[in-house]
Amino acid sequence: MTADVPDAPTAALTPAALALGDDALVLSHRLGEWAGHAPVLEEEVALANIALDLLGQARILLSMAGDEDELAYLREERAFRNVQLVEQPNGDFAHTIARQLYFSAYQHLLYAALAAGDGPFAPLAAKAVKEVAYHRDHAEQWTLRLGDGTDVSHERMQRACDALWRYTGELFQPVQGLDADWAGMEAAWLETVGDVLRRATLTVPEGPRSGAWTAGAGRQGLHTEPFGRMLAEMQHLHRSHPGASW
Amino acid sequence: MTDTDWPLWEVFVRSRRGLSHTHAGSLHAPDAELALRNARDLYTRRGEGVSLWVVPSSAITASSPDEKDPFFEPAADKPYRHPTFYEIPEEVEHL
């Protein structure tokens, strides 16, 4: 299963670099799927910009763990370490926005903490935290408008927030090699996201976020069914033409 | 792409401190805050700007092409309005 994974040059960094890098790579690919399908042209560019920010982060992070192309294109599903939240399908626009709100709020807290430290991820985090602040703001603006919009948009946004809620507990499972106050970040995340949802006239979901009947093994390489199909599409070209160049 | 009835906005970008805002183009957005964000994504993603204005296109009063002659023609034959009769000292640059 993992025969294609290259030997890691910096073994101590690898688990954390893969976790953060795979989060960014997979979400970037999901957002890229909106190209040509977004509700309006302006929003398509906005989503593509966010995807490109994340791809830039992924390239740096995966390069810290090995060869970026081999890691992105030649690993099997079980070798990916992203959380299950980011691999969830785009769904309708509300699902994409809810996924982005949940993830960006988490990523902003994590990168702010890493940027404040002096670990190996501090330089990347210091740059990326500004990008992520914009991603979070974009998702927040849309959550407010969809939640507090029409009856239909409110219902769809609530449905999306409820559906993805069970994937949010996994975000705060400590990652080996990352020095952060995970419990503190989770409390801050609940406060931030709860505040946005309430201002958007949405109900903060009450379902479980961790424990039985929730998601939470992406970091261990267990992924949801749609991830395999996404990966097949993402890796198809590279695997069909090994070593091809422009 | 489906049609929307979102209003049109004109975007003005200031490329550097000290320069004035220049018209960059237009876009659709449901309200001013999102227009500003769309403008950021469409017109400043390659580092073009330090400041953005968005203005509802409906708020702009434009001169009509039909009025081109009465508006602009009279300025053409008044050369004394152009500062071309002065000797410019060599030391003065960028004039």
Can you put this structure into words, describing what you see?
- The complex is a heterodimer of chains A (246) and B (95).
- With 246 residues, chain A is mainly α.
- Chain A is built from nine helices and no strands.
- Mean pLDDT of chain A is 92; it is low at 1-9.
- Chain B is an alpha+beta fold.
- Chain B has a domain at 8-63: Phenylacetic acid degradation B (Ubiquitin-like (UB roll), Roll).
- Helices cover 18% and strands 21% of the residues of chain B.
- Chain B has helices at 32-43, 68-72, and strands at 8-14, 22-28, 51-56.
- In chain B, strands 2-1-3 form a three-stranded antiparallel β-sheet, with helices on one face.
- In chain B, a hairpin with a 7-residue loop joins strand 1 (8-14) and strand 2.
- Chain B is flat, with a radius of gyration of 20 Å.
- The A-B interface holds A 39-43, 45-46, 49, 137-138, 141, 145 and B 1-2, 4, 6, 27-31, 33-34, 37-38, 41-42, 45.
Task: Tag the structure with descriptive keywords.
heterodimer; A: 246 residues; mainly alpha; 0% strand; B: alpha+beta; Ubiquitin-like (UB roll); three-stranded antiparallel β-sheet
Radius of gyration of chain B: 20 Å
Order of helices and strands of chain B: EEHEH
End-to-end separation of chain B: 49 Å
What structural class do the secondary elements of chain B suggest?
alpha+beta
Tell me the strand percentage band of chain B: 15-25%
Question: Helical element count of chain A?
Answer: 9
- Spatial extent as radius of gyration of chain A: 17 Å
What's the structural blueprint in terms of helices and strands?
The complex is a heterodimer of chains A (246) and B (95).
Chain A: H1 14-32, H2 41-65, H3 68-73, H4 84-87, H5 93-116, H6 122-147, H7 151-165, H8 182-199, H9 225-240
Helix pairs in contact in A: 1-2, 2-6, 5-6, 5-7, 5-8, 6-7
Chain B: E1 8-14, E2 22-28, H1 32-43, E3 51-56, H2 68-72
Antiparallel strand pairs in B: 1-2, 1-3
